Amino acid sequence: xxxxxxxxxxxxxxxxxxxxxVDDGKSTLVGRLLHDSKSVLADQLxxxxxxxxxxxxxxxxxxxLTDGLRAEREQGITIDVAYRYFATPRRRFILAxxxxxxxxxxxxxxxxxxxxxxxxxxxxxxxxxxxxRRHAAVAALLRVPHVVLAVNKMDLVDYAEPVxxxxxxxxxxxxxxxxxPEVTAIPISALAGDNVVEPSAHMDWYGGPxxxxxxxxxxxSHDLTACHARFPVQYVIRPQTAExxxxxxxxxxxxxxxxxxxxxxxxLPSGRTSTIAGIDALGESVDIAWAPQSxxxxxxxxxxxxxxxxxxxxxxxxxxxxxxEATVCHVADQPLTVGQRVxxxxxxxxxxxxxxxxxxxxxxxxxxxxxxxGQLVANDIGRVVVRTAEPLxxxxxxxxxxxxxxxxxxxxxxxxxxxxxxxxxxxTAAEAGSEAGTGTEAGAWDF
Length: 447
Known about the structure:
By secondary structure, the protein is an alpha+beta fold. Helices cover 21% and strands 33% of the residues. It has nine helices and 25 strands. It has helices spanning 2-9, 26-36, 42-54, 70-75, 105-112, 130-141, 161-178, 211-217, 429-438; strands at residues 13-20, 82-87, 92-97, 117-123, 146-152, 183-187, 231-232, 235-237, 249-253, 258-260, 264-268, 272-281, 284-286, 288-290, 294-299, 310-313, 320-330, 336-337, 341-346, 349-363, 368-371, 375-376, 381-393, 405-409, 416-422. Helix 7 links the parallel strand 5 and strand 6. Helix 5 runs parallel beside helix 6 (130-141) and helix 6 (130-141) crosses helix 7. Mean pLDDT is 84; it is low at 1-11, 68-79 and 434-447.
């Protein structure tokens, strides 16, 4: 296990997302981060400078590094999620720049669904607004373990410490009520570059890290070997050749945890048990494999296993159910209604299902529940009860983001309707404290 942890620890990759209200400066922050960390190619910077000059701007508009769509440039807003990949000597990053408009809340869900950290921007002149609370709630629902509050445009409030302190206190208190385990507040000016990559010369009262320094040093657990081991079967391999006449293997990507040769496992939803006879990875037999490796498992017994089945340790298998209660974000333009027939996609398994009930819709302004709304429309977040035609091996989303999440799909045209998170909505304050304290221990959230 130590060797696995050491090997995984060398992969210092951080996935993070930016969010905030309209014109809070998300794209400018991202552009400044890329520019000042020297992660922008010369031709990219030249194109941005040319586009800026054509719009009558003397200095390059760094927001154009991420706002690539024509409509985004014309309106000066972010519409779609823009992914950027960059690296420093200390860590590699995958960044998702998400929109700020209320109507694009679903895009933030997309961008933050795999994030290990969320940067929520606030305009220092406006403070915490409705959309700030909405994005904090989405980050909490998605169980993003680290949240950075970037109080932007400090240059427009004369770099005043009391302004920053008041905003930080209000946001931290709100986030704590949502069960967010950790908030780091940083005063910045994305336009001027203060505290983004380099420390600010105008805020000597602030002694914390810059945004980049925090991104480089925030502890992120990539050791999934301590998590519940889960292996969704993607493909059954039966070559039936002269060289391999009896070979039967089950291929897929390990979603979490580790599997070892000789380990007792359960195949779900059938509940049949066996032991791992062999593990094949990259054409070679290995004794152990771990997430997120793509491997082929061979079992000691001939069991009826097909795509969509889940292999898990015999002593740590998830519960199999046909009744799922979950928090969902509705992402389609057409509403989700009670009684609607859908397809439910969970890992590699897709089954028929029906929406039995929509108990409530979440009002993100004050976190109140609007009971029995009857339907969810685009960008709504609510609770649903779904009945599936076949049993599913589903974890709680709080235990595993990979095997606790699912999609509801329109069976008529394949449109994604809803993104779901099984189990409870927000973490309690006690749970959040526990999660923040466990770090890379077995109790930490599975990422």
